[in-house]
Amino acid sequence: MLDGLPEELKEVVDPHWGKFPPQHPFVQHIGGICYLILTALSIFGNGLVMYIFLKCKNLRSPTNMFIVNLAFSDFMMMFTQGFPVGIGMFMSPIWPFGALACKVYACLGSIFGVASIVTMLVIGFDRYNVIVKGFSGTKITAGKAFCILSLIWIYVTLISIPPFLGWGGYASEGVLVTCTYDYLKDDWNHKSFMLYAFIVNYCCPLFVISYYYSHIVKAVVSHERALKAQAKKMNVESLRGKEDKDGDSAEFKIAKVAITNVMLWFAIWTPYATVTMIGQFGNRDLVSPLVSQLPAFLAKTASVINPFVFAVSHPKYREALAIEVPCLGIGNAPKSSGDEETVTAKA
């Protein structure tokens, strides 16, 4: 794979990749098409989320700005990561933009990727705060939301620039068309940084998001049990309204969304985290170009999935989408004026 490698790229390409034969051009072309499709879907989906949430006054609440921030970080993730790779794969069999651009690309990927992860944790906290804590929870004001969002971006920037300051590094990976953390160097400088990144970017978020959503599910199950007990005491079939009887209750829907959030997060990020740890502390012979590249691509699919998980599950967003972009045929059409109070209460 390293035959004909330009001199300027040697600082960001580990000799490990020289053990493997060049990839068939078909692999790269398919990869380029996939990246461009993923980029288009991400830009469309996240752009739509930002447009609807910012345009509709009733959606511009402080806590909804967390969803807007998630959409922005996912949008920028694929705008800065998808286009260069999708186009670069048709320009050259390896990264075509030079060593410095490789490091900047990897740094931006870290900033926007971790920003999305941290924002999902904040959204999880907000839902935990409302559903589990209820009236005893912390009220998120516009000022608090602004401070939280500011801290997110300061935090993700600070934890992504150490490779430029001498701790850890950024390098090309897989089929040498993308760049990320350098997880193949043997020295403790790189090992310690990768261990740090693994803990703060994967282990801690996984623990925290699991904690929030497990408590949300417990609260939902407890509430459902209390409703059934109360209905039994009152000698009625159910305390739910007719609409809830015909389908899943609102509580059950919340529980499903919570479980889906955790499972998707685990499924998307675990393969990539595993590959980096094998590359740093395990048998590196297992880390072939495709074994490295596919999890990296899978991690980027989060930018397409997040708008559906966090925005489309929002009742008011679906109603606004049905009004603002009716051609999509998505969303809940507003009820008639006679049912206006019901719509407002359920939203």
Short account of what is shown:
Helices cover 67% and strands 2% of the residues. The protein is mainly alpha-helical and 347 residues long. The chain folds into two domains: 25-204 and 269-312, Rhodopsin 7-helix transmembrane proteins (Rhopdopsin 7-helix transmembrane proteins), CATH 1.20.1070.10; 314-347, no CATH class.
Provide an overview of this structure.
This protein is mostly helical and 347 residues long. It has two domains: 25-204 and 269-312, Up-down Bundle (Rhopdopsin 7-helix transmembrane proteins), CATH 1.20.1070.10; 314-347, no CATH class. Helices cover 67% and strands 2% of the residues. It has eleven helices and two strands. It has helices at residues 25-55, 64-91, 99-133, 142-158, 188-233, 242-246, 250-281, 289-300, 302-312, 315-324, 340-346; strands at 170-173, 178-181. Strands 1-2 form a two-stranded antiparallel sheet. Helix 1 (25-55) runs parallel beside helix 9 and helix 3 packs parallel to helix 5. The longest helix is centred in the middle third of the chain and has 46 residues, at 188-233. The chain is elongated and about 80 Å long. The N and C termini lie far apart (55 Å). The model is unreliable at 336-347 (pLDDT under 50).
